[in-house]
Specification:
21 helices; about 10% strand; six-stranded antiparallel beta sheet; alpha+beta
């Protein structure tokens, strides 16, 4: 398998499609920082299925899609494709060329393709399994891998070794088993807690169920007392409500009379108050005028006084302004003289400054020329020193190179002898492993056949369990349906029986009479029943018969007319109302004549005569035929109209929907109010309900027996499933152990073959390396001889240049001192000139201020003179108007006194009227208060009555009429005491859980199920512990063998990269190889043996690279990407790394991302990455053939 090409489209900074072709050998990718080189390595990880955004240097999939620039729009998806040559058939696919593709969208979804055919990520993983290519393999090595190795954290370093040794899959399985074991243990603890809790609930629930039974018994006894107390209180409250209603009506009449008298008195009072208000308004008007006149007099007098005082102040201000003007003019003349002196001094200082500046320019020019001479000599001296250092460094490198080459040759010769011995040992071990693999394969096939047979049995058992469960579900569903039907039927029967017992639906007079007949032995023989209860009507005719009879349904049948008379007197005496009585002895049939019967023949829809369609006792034939003998039942109005026309409306006709055609022609019909029950159908429905309840109870019993049989069958089927499952579990464990054993054997066989191949390859490489070392040793010794001869002449040149440089620096210092002195003089003169100019500016500013002040003072003097003239004019006009205003004030004062006397007389009359009004209002308020109290008492009684009714309904679902059925004579006081005693007993029971019986059964059932689950978890805990032990043994064995091979590879690779020295890997605790620290001990040439952390940064990096190549030898891969792993190496080590890479590239393709020239020098192809446009990466390629260079071309 060989990598041939990668295509990148829209991935990160590659906005447009880019293509990189790879040949055998080494391909380098170069470019400045930030141009997108590492994005190519990320593209490899991306297409091979990396799911971690962090590993691809992002936060989410959207970060991998080109996000746009100022000139380009963002893309909606990215796509990367890898092309492989599969001519050798290493990939398990029939194609000689394979292309894998991954496409990602901004929504976070990804698509995968193999040869442009859609596939799963799992298919790509399967394709590259055991090839070393993948996101978790060592085909892509970045600086992160180097950091893991040189990290001081043991966990990071151990991860790298375990991945290389191939034990990570076992560790993952072990950790998964440990997680399952931990979860199992947590579940065991949780189940133990639940079982303890349930065991603690069982006994309390039993006690609660016993308490619930006692509560129900006390509750029934309390209901009987509460209902009778309610009847007594209900009737007493109604009597008190009637008395309060009468008293309230009388009081309201008296309140109406008092309100009329009060209204007349209020009218008289209102007229008196109106007169008093008009007088008050006149007084207010006069007072306002008086106040205004008085205010004007006072204001004008004050203004006169203010004007006189202002004139005196203005005189004084005028004198002060004259003095200030004279002072300002004197100060201005003094400042003009000082400014003239300062101008002369400034002109003198300007000449001195110009002379000093001329001298400073000439001296600085001389100093600049001397500085140039000194710099030139310093550069010449530095060049001679650098040349000397280069020769010394090269000499040291040459000597070190010779020493390393000698040590490497000795190590390689020793390694050849060791390889020959180890190779023969590996061949012998390979034969043993192949025999063991054949035995494992046979055992695995036998276990597979047994497992298939058991799985077939398990599926059949599960199918049987599912079928039984389905039958149980259907049976229980049917049982619930029957139970619901039974409860509904019983509830309906109870309601109808209660209504029948309470005679609900009858008029109150009939209901009261029937209720008394049940209790009164003297009344009972007088009443034989009600018409509705004495006849039986088929269901289809109930509506028609009920509408035809109407109120006659509630007629009471008595034996004789005398009996009827006694019943009527009883109704009158009890004030129950009126009722219709039907004496059996007096009732005569009212039937159709033969002619009228003829009208019914041959008429479609005629059902028959009503009295013939019902059933009754022969004793009541006269009653039935009297009521229904002349009533015909038809299906609908069409049939009724046809018969009615024939009979000329001579008898009653009723339809099945209840429409009536009366004798004489009138018709009654329409929609009837739908009722929950009818008087006629109640008895029939009760009989039907009894039959239905009996039938449902039989069906429920049969369903319960069926469920018990099915549950027994289910228990047996579950036991069968459990037995087969246990057998399968044991076989799975055996098969997993056998598969694991065979995996280990196959891995050992593969490793054995790889080791044999590596040893053969290593022998060939060592022989080649020995020849190269001999040639390099000769070249190093020739270079050392040439460098020794060139150092003497360089020392003489350095001494000569140093003498000339010392003389030039003395001359430079003398000129610099002259420049400093001149600058000091220039600064002093300039400072004095600046101070003079600052003082001149200050004097000019003060002079301008004094002049402006004098002008402003003169303006203020003119304004003061003008104001004095205006004040004198105002003062002369104000004095004449004050006298006339004082006369008007005296006149208004006399008018105000007269109006106040008139208002006082009127106020006394109004006060007398108010006293009479207040007295009547108090009396009216008292009557209203009494009326309000009566209404409150009435509302309270009504509220108490409603509350009693609501409480009885809430507690027992009884109305007053229904409660009368429980009526019995009681002693009210004793009943209250007994009720309180029963409530106390109920309260003493505390909280009562009426559902405790059902809860008790459920808890017991759940306790049994959880106990079974607990036993299953304990068995699972034992199995998982055994699996973890086996995995640990396998990991230790696998890691130990692979670690030994990595150590051997590392020692040889280190020596090759460092050109000598030695290195080893050390386990800190050989008794705990899966958890102990792994130390890297290294001894570069010329240094002592020490830990990796004590080496320099470059040595650490090269040591880590040596370990990575050692791992690659253990797990070879078709191609390898190295992302800037040579960053920390110096030039010499980069050359060593490049040469080693060149040798290794004969079998593996390398793609390196680098900045180092030494690495670029050994490349067969080179790609440059640049950003001609900000944010967009572009590729430029070049291929180097033997003997000539190819010009770079843009990709």
């Amino acid at each position: 398998m060989r990598l041939t090409q990668i295509e990148i489209n829209g991935f990160k900074s590659f906005a447009k499609k880019q293509q990189l072709d790879f040949a055998d050998g080494i391909t380098a990718i170069i470019g400045p920082n930030g141009c997108g080189k590492s994005n190519i390595a990320d593209a490899f990880r991306f297409v091979l299925g990396e799911q971690s955004a962090k590993a691809l240097r992002g936060k989410k999939v959207e970060d991998f899609i080109f996000g746009g620039t100022q000139k380009r729009r963002p893309l909606s998806f990215c796509e990367v494709s890898l092309h492989f040559d599969n001519s050798d058939g290493e990939l398990l696919t029939p194609y000689t060329e394979v292309c894998i593709t991954r496409r990602a969208y901004r929504s976070g979804e990804s698509e995968y393709f193999i040869n442009r055919a859609a596939c799963r990520l799992k298919d790509i993983h399967e394709l590259f399994r055991d090839t070393g290519v993948g996101k978790d393999g060592y085909s892509i090595i970045g600086q992160g891998r180097v950091s893991e190795i040189i990290s001081e954290k043991s966990a990071d370093r151990r991860t790298a070794f375990e991945e290389a040794a191939g034990v990570m899959k076992y560790r993952a399985r072990k950790e998964e088993a440990e997680r399952k074991l931990l979860n199992t243990q947590k579940n065991l603890v949780r189940l133990d807690d639940i079982l303890c809790e349930l065991e603690g609930r069982i006994e309390p629930l039993r006690e609660q169920s016993e308490k619930a039974l006692q509560f129900i018994k006390l509750r029934e006894e309390l209901r009987d007392i509460d209902v009778n107390l309610y009847i007594y209180q209900y009737e007493k409250s109604n009597e008190r409500i009637q008395a309060l209603t009468d008293s309230t009506a009388q009081l309201r009449s008296r309140i109406a009379d008092a309100e009329v008298e009060g209204a007349a008195l209020a009218s008289t009072l209102s007229e008196g108050e109106e007169v008093e208000r008009s007088i008050g308004a006149a007084i207010s008007e006069v007072s306002q005028k008086l106040l205004s006149a008085t205010t004007n007099v006072e204001a004008h007098s004050g203004e006169e006084k203010v004007l006189r005082e202002r004139l005196v102040a203005l005189e004084r201000e005028k004198e002060r302004l004259a003095e200030d003007i004279a002072s300002a003019l004197s100060e201005a003349q003094a400042r003009e003289a000082e400014a003239g002196e300062l101008n002369k001094r400034i002109v003198s200082l300007q000449g001195e400054v110009e002379a000093v500046e001329s001298e400073l320019a000439a001296t600085e020019k001389r100093l600049e020329e001397k500085n140039g001479d000194v710099s030139s000599k310093e550069e010449e001296l530095e060049a001679h020193k650098q040349s000397m250092m280069d020769r010394l460094n090269r000499l040291s490198d040459a000597r070190s190179q010779s020493s390393r080459l000698d040590a490497m040759k000795r190590a390689l010769l020793n390694r050849i002898e060791a390889i020959k011995i180890e190779r023969q040992s590996i061949i012998d071990e390979g034969e043993k492993l192949r025999l063991e693999d054949e035995e494992c394969a046979a055992a695995e096939a036998e276990l597979g056949a047994k497992l298939k047979e058991l799985n077939d049995k398990k599926n059949a058992a599960i199918a049987k369990v599912n079928g039984v469960n389905q039958n149980i579900f259907k049976a229980r569903q049917e049982e619930r349906t029957l139970g619901n039907s039974l409860e509904a039927a019983k509830s309906r029967r109870k309601v109808l029986s209660e209504m029948k017992r309470a005679h609900e639906g009858y008029y109150s007079s009939v209901r009261d009479l029937l209720r008394d007949a049940e209790r009164d032995p003297s009344l009972s023989p007088l009443i034989e029943g009600v018409v509705a209860e004495l006849i039986s009507v088929p269901a289809e005719y109930e509506t028609a018969i009920e509408m035809a009879l109407g109120a006659a349904l509630q007629n009471i049948v008595v034996p004789t007319e005398q009996d009827g008379k006694q019943v009527i007197e009883y109704l009158r005496r009890k004030n129950y109302g009126r009722a219709t009585l039907l004496p059996v002895s007096a009732m005569r049939p009212r039937l159709l004549t033969a002619e009228e019967r003829g009208y019914l023949k041959n008429v479609a829809g005629c059902c028959g005569i009503a009295s013939e369609l019902i059933s009754f006792s022969p004793r009541y034939r006269g009653v039935a035929e009297n009521l229904l003998g002349r009533t015909v039942i038809v299906t609908d109005l069409d049939a009724g109209i046809a018969i009615n026309k024939r009979a000329h409306s001579s008898f009653r006709i009723a339809t099945l929907k209840g429409d009536i055609m009366n004798p004489g022609g009138s018709m009654t019909g329409g929609s009837a109010v739908k009722r929950e029950f009818s008087l006629l159908g109640r008895e029939r429905e009760l009989e039907q309900l009894e039959k239905n309840i009996s039938s449902i109870e039989g069906q429920l019993k049969a369903a319960g027996e069926s469920i018990l049989k099915l549950e027994a069958e289910l228990l047996k089927a579950n036991e069968g499933v459990a037995a087969v499952t246990e057998s399968i579990r044991e076989l799975d464990i055996q098969r997993a152990a056998q598969a694991e054993k065979r995996d280990i054997v196959l891995k050992y066989i593969e490793k054995n073959e790889q080791q044999a191949q590596r040893y053969a390859l290593e022998l060939s490489q060592i022989n080649d390396n020995i020849a190269d070392i001999d040639e390099q040793t000769r070249e190093a010794r020739e270079l050392e001889s040439g460098l020794n001869t060139g150092n003497a002449s360089t020392n003489e040149d350095i001494k000569r240049v140093q003498g000339e440089l010392l003389r030039l620096r003395d001359e430079q210092k003398s000129i610099a001192d002259e420049v400093t002195a001149i600058k000091v003089r220039h600064m002093a003169v300039g400072k004095e000139q600046g101070a003079a100019r600052t003082e001149l500016a200050r004097l000019n500013k003060e002079l301008a201020g004094y002049r402006a002040s004098a002008v402003k003072l003169q303006e203020q003097t003119v304004a003061a003179q003008k104001e004095m003239t205006e004040c004198r004019e105002k003062l002369s006009g104000m004095t004449s108007g004050i006298g006339s205003e004082r006369q008007e004030v005296d006149k208004l004062t006399d008018e105000l006194r007269r109006l106040e006397e008139e208002r006082a007389l009127k106020l006394r009359s109004v006060d007398e009227l108010r006293e009479r009004r207040d007295s009547g209002a108090n009396e009216l308020a008292d009557m209203r208060e009494r009326s309000h109290r009566f209404e409150l008492n009435l509302n309270r009684l009504q509220m108490e009555l409603e509350n009693m009714t609501a409480r009885i309904w809430q507690d027992y679902e009884l109305t007053y009429e229904n409660a009368l059925a429980f009526r019995r004579p009681i002693a009210v006081t004793a009943s209250h005491a007994k009720a309180d005693e029963l409530r106390q007993e109920i309260r003493s029971l505390g909280e009562v859980n009426t559902a405790s019986v059902e809860d008790y059964r459920n808890v017991l059932e759940r306790h049994r199920e959880l106990k079974a689950q607990c036993d299953d978890l304990k068995q699972a805990e034992t199995d998982l512990t055994e699996i973890i032990k086996r995995l640990t043994v396998t990991m230790e064995k696998e890691f130990s063998e692979q670690f030994k091979q990595i150590q051997e590879n590392f020692s040889s690779t280190f020596t090759e990269l460092f050109r000598g020295g030695r290195a080893e890997l050390v386990l800190s605790d050989s008794s705990d190889i899966l958890n102990c620290d792994i130390d890297i001990i290294a001894q570069p040439p010329g240094k002592k043996l020490q830990l990796l952390s004590l080496l320099s940064g470059g040595e650490q990096a090269l040591t880590a690279i040596a370990l990575l190549f050692a791992i690659l030898k253990l797990k070879p891969t078709a191609f390898c990407i190295l992302d800037e792993i040579d960053t920390s190496l110096d030039e010499a080590n980069v050359d060593n790394f490049a040469e080693y890479l060149k040798d290794y590239s004969k079998e593996t393709q390398f793609i390196i991302i680098t900045h180092r020239k030494g690495a670029m020098a050994v490349c067969d192809s080179l790609y440059g990455v640049s950003m001609e446009e900000k944010g967009v990466s572009t590729l430029i390629s070049a291929r180097f053939d033997e003997g000539e260079d190819e010009q770079p071309t843009a990709v």
